[in-house]
Amino acid sequence: MKKLILLLATLSLGSLCWGASARHDAEERLQNATEVLHEIMGMPDKGIPEEVLEHAKCIAVVPHMVKGGFVFGGKGGKGVATCRTPNGWSAPAFITISGGNWGLQIGLEAVDLVMIFQNEKAMQKLLSSNFHVGADASAAAGPVGRHAEAGTTWKLDTEILTYSRAKGVFAGLTLEGASIRQDNDSRRAIYGPKVTTKALLMGKVPAPPVAQAFLVAIRGAKAEAVAEKADDKSDARTEVAHKDHVTLTGCLQKGDNDGEFAITARDGKTWELHSTSVKLDHHLGHKVTVTGPRTHETKAQERAEDKREGVVPAAKKDVYPEVRVTHLTMVSETCK
Hints:
The chain is of the alpha+beta class. The chain folds into 2 domains: 37-220, no CATH class; 245-332, CATH 2.40.50.500. It has 9 helices and 16 strands. The protein has helices spanning 2-41, 50-55, 120-127, 154-157, 184-191, 197-201, 212-229, 233-243, 299-309; strands spanning 58-68, 71-85, 88-89, 93-98, 110-117, 130-132, 139-141, 160-166, 169-170, 179-182, 245-254, 261-264, 270-274, 287-293, 322-324, 327-332. The strands form 2 sheets. Strands 1, 2, 3, 4, 5, 6, 7, 8, 9 and 10 form a 10-stranded mixed β-sheet that branches. A hairpin with a 2-residue loop joins β8 and β9. α7 runs antiparallel to α8 (233-243). The longest helix has 40 residues, at 2-41. It is globular, with a radius of gyration of 22 Å.
């Protein structure tokens, strides 16, 4: 009897540890996918065009796929996907991608992949438990730049547009023969055993807090594309940034004054943080991902305001853009 109790206790402990590990992996994947979106859309003249994002039925992101040898045969990665619904983008579902001959990429060890599902037929493939690129759904490398060229057939002939990036440049993978499946373990770790992938992508399940940063990045990708398309890029970026949230990952530090906080993002830019709903002081010295709206005025607005009030600007310390943090996810307890 004691042996049976010990065995059951061991199995229960193992199950708890597995569940915690699966949840951690899923949360980390959401964070990495968020960063991939920001980085791809931030590439000068190389982001995903506005027309493509407007046309998208679903978007899937697979961060840090790892290859072996010169081809991706037998290798792959895990990602997240969301679909457009009448109420906005759906709670993200989890997917895996494997197999296929994804093209010769000598010297490339890891690739970030974004897939744009363009029509209802492509969306139905994503809702299925498993499909093969090429045999079940056509795919091709998507157009890049400020806008997709008129007269091309990307809207009509291809169900899935792919954007694969390695070492800061687009790698041009074809995904021919790759298998895309539902990742049931990750889905259960985040949503529980009763939620299905179809229910998630159809918008029938609310998005959990851990997914908010990813969904903000999806919504922000369209705003970034609009800014890239505008003739005056700096003004458009400023206008869009005020309307939309930003997502930042970095080390949470003390600000210049008591009660102030700051974060230095991966691009080296420092942001000032404040919040009335998130206890930022509890995460000092932690690597975190924060999301929220920008709140600072543009330099042009500041100069106009000073001119109206007759203020002569005094010499002062650097002024950092500010973010009102509405959501925080801890990445690690250290900044290393």
